[in-house]
Amino acid sequence: MKRIKTTETVNQEGKEVLISGWVNARRNMGKIAFLDVRDRFSMIQVVGVPDELDANSNENLAKIRPEFVVAIKGMVNKRGEKQINKDLPTGTIEILAKEIIILNESETPPFEIVNEDRQANEELRLKYRYLDLRHERMKNNMIMRSKVLHFLRDYLQQQDFVDIQTPILSKSTPEGARDYLVPSRLHQGKFFALPQAPQQYKQLLMIAGLERYFQIAPCFRDEDARADRSPGEFYQLDMEMSFVTQEDILILVEEMFTKLVKELYPDKKITETPWPRIDHQEAMEKYGSDKPDLRKDKNDPNELAFAWILNFPLFVEQTEEDHFYGAGDKWAPSHNMFTAPHEEDLELLDKDPGKVRSYQHDLALNGFELGGGAIRIHDMKIQEKVWDLIGFDAKQKEQFQHYFEAFKYGVPPHGGIAPGIERLMMILQGEKNLKEVTAFPLTSDGRDPLMDSPAEVSKEQLKELGLDIVSEIK
Ligand code: ASP
């Protein structure tokens, strides 16, 4: 007999079926036992009556505890009017067990799977993430994330975008954060860097003539965690287009997310369409933020207030954190160093750089920065000027030799954006933390309690890489 999903038992009254899954709960009523059996799709009530079962099944039934993995052969029966459970798709029926097989036993989990309070201890939840993900809400977050990514991939393919995987073993990318470094064994003393974003690669793909690129791109930034920032790694819907204006990018993104909400989150309402467009200066003056929360009712879980923030200054004053740029220099890029200035402000680059406006566009959603992007510089003379202003010395410019070289061979005007997947999913799923929409996230202090990483490596491994640990390990 072929195993069917719990949801497929509906309308099968009077038929014999085989289901399998985990025991969610067990209730004893005299000699009869009720088992709630859970699979990915739903849950169904199984009734174990000793007289209906062979000796082996009776033995198994006596043993079964929550989280055992079981297979049940039995008859689908209608539930009595009073026993109907309206919360379950299988709530009108139950299975009268004829055969009970234990596929695997389980110890008592360190927290109750169905109990929301298990959230209290993040360390434990992450150490036993595979149990945490058994919870209905977490499972649903994973399934919706999959559906959203599928929608985005499908939508962009239909719009002529090409899905291209750029390298993970890469070179330091100047997105303004600290890099994760990977030592090279074959070239000792040299390091790969994990990409903070595929920024340079996607621009090189425009030079390559691909015209429309996207990728659900893993990004790695060695930064401290915040509620709206994942420690370590996260994903972006990374996009780049040639021969476009800023307007084209804004429209494409607006239409894509509007359709996504309509198809996958029909209960949600977008506060204002077309999405409001606010000048950076106005946003700062009016809301004191460049990611204002424009919801009319902040308690409405179904409200989505998208807004474009435009006309950012090209530069911001450097802070100590801007270690990447020239030390002691005044300017750091507001978005990144490839962002194009407004044509009419070009003269100000020499006279008053702080006044230059840029083609940066940030997308705000419910008070979060969903993503940013820009029209890029495609003229090396302007790029060099920007590098000078952010204090690049000859050595730093040397690091962009490949970029400099590529710019000699016909760079099309281009631009793009990269909305964050975890931020999007956190807001759509009504979660308060990015970890809730990430299958195996790191702790806020950058550890994985499940795999126990980062971890020490053997002396031999270090030797192969030509490395030595010089500071004392605490
Ligand atoms: N690479 C940028 C970022 O990670 C996004 C973009 O400009 O497309 O923020």
Name some characteristics of this structure:
Aspartate--tRNA ligase, aspartate-tRNA ligase activity, NA-bd_OB_tRNA, elongated, 2 domains, OB fold (Dihydrolipoamide Acetyltransferase, E2P), 474 residues, 24% strand, binds aspartic acid, alpha+beta, nucleic acid binding, BirA Bifunctional Protein, domain 2, 5-stranded mixed β-barrel, EC 6.1.1.12
Task: Find the CATH superfamily of the largest domain.
Answer: Bira Bifunctional Protein, Domain 2
Sheet with the most strands, sense and barrel status: 8 strands, mixed
Indicate the percent of residues in helices: 10-25%
Query: Which CATH architecture of the largest domain would you pick?
Result: 2-Layer Sandwich
**Beta fraction:** 15-25%
- Give the cofactors and ligands: aspartic acid
Can you offer a commentary on this structure?
Catalyzes the attachment of L-aspartate to tRNA(Asp) in a two-step reaction: L-aspartate is first activated by ATP to form Asp-AMP and then transferred to the acceptor end of tRNA(Asp). It comes from Candidatus Komeilibacteria bacterium CG_4_10_14_0_8_um_filter_37_78. Belongs to the class-II aminoacyl-tRNA synthetase family. Type 1 subfamily. One of its GO terms (cellular component) is cytoplasm. This protein has 474 residues and is α+β, with helices and mostly antiparallel strands. It folds into 2 domains: 4-102, OB fold (Dihydrolipoamide Acetyltransferase, E2P) (Beta Barrel); 129-457, Bira Bifunctional Protein, Domain 2 (BirA Bifunctional Protein, domain 2, 2-Layer Sandwich). Helix content is 25%, strand content 24%. The protein is built from 13 helices and 19 strands. The strands form 5 sheets. The protein has an 8-stranded mixed sheet, sandwiched between helices. A 5-stranded mixed barrel has the order 1-2-3-5-4. A hairpin with a 2-residue loop joins strand 17 and strand 18 (368-375). The longest helix has 23 residues, at 136-158. The model has no long low-confidence stretch (mean pLDDT 94). The structure holds aspartic acid.
